[in-house]
Amino acid sequence: MVITGANLRPDSSAVSPDVLKRVTKTYNMFEKMFSGKEAKTSMDSIVYKYIKLLAEQPNIPVGELQRISAPVLVIGGDHDVIKPAHTLSIFENIPNAYLWVLPNSGHATLVTRANEFNRSVDGFFTFKYRKIEDRERDF
Predict the structure, then answer these.
(1) Are residues 80 and 112 in the same domain?
(2) How many structural domains compose the chain?
(3) What is the per-residue pLDDT across 83-111, written as a single tens digit (0 to 9) for each?
(4) Distance separating alpha carbons of residues 62 and 88, to the nearest angstrom
């Protein structure tokens, strides 16, 4: 499995307060617009569902990550809207995980660094996962 720009909960532990404030403000605006009404366009409906998802989900306890047995490549940008510490926490709690933090990169790593992203993801799926321990580490 490969994840990029992932978070475990929609709060300030995952994103900065300004991002959380913008999402909450937009969500509240859409709530008022559609309270008891149908969306005027299909795009309004899609945007509303997306903003609602951002504001309310996910809610994944850290302990649940430890149940993942598949190898996982955890990806984030060093300037991602998801805090690097949050990405690191996800990585640290998945038993068979690799971590890849792209320097000088934001949230859309798979778009802005498409070639590098695709090569690395392809490599992840091509080669068998290995735990690197003790003397196997590169010096």
Answers:
(1) yes
(2) 2
(3) 999 999 999 999 999 999 999 999 999 89
(4) 12
Residues forming a β-bridge with 75: 4, 100
> Rounded distance, CA 123 to CA 8, Å?
26
- In terms of residue numbers, what domain contains 76? 2-7+62-130
What DSSP state is assigned to residue 104? T
Encoding tokens for residue 117?
């992203």
Q: Quick one: 41 and 89 in the same domain? A: no
Note whether 34 and 87 are same-domain residues. Answer: no
125 & 92 share domain: yes
- Strand, coil or helix: 12: coil
Between CA 82 and CA 8 the distance in angstroms is 10
| Same domain for 68 and 114 | yes
Tokens, residue 118: 């695709």
The answer to whether residue 79 is domain-embedded is yes
What's the confidence (pLDDT) of residue 38? 73
Give me the residues paired with residue 72 across strands.
97
In the sheet with 72-77, reading across from the earlier edge strand, the strands are 2-4, 72-77, 97-102
Residues 39-50 have pLDDT tens digits of 778 888 888 888
What pTM, to 2 d.p., does this model score?
0.84
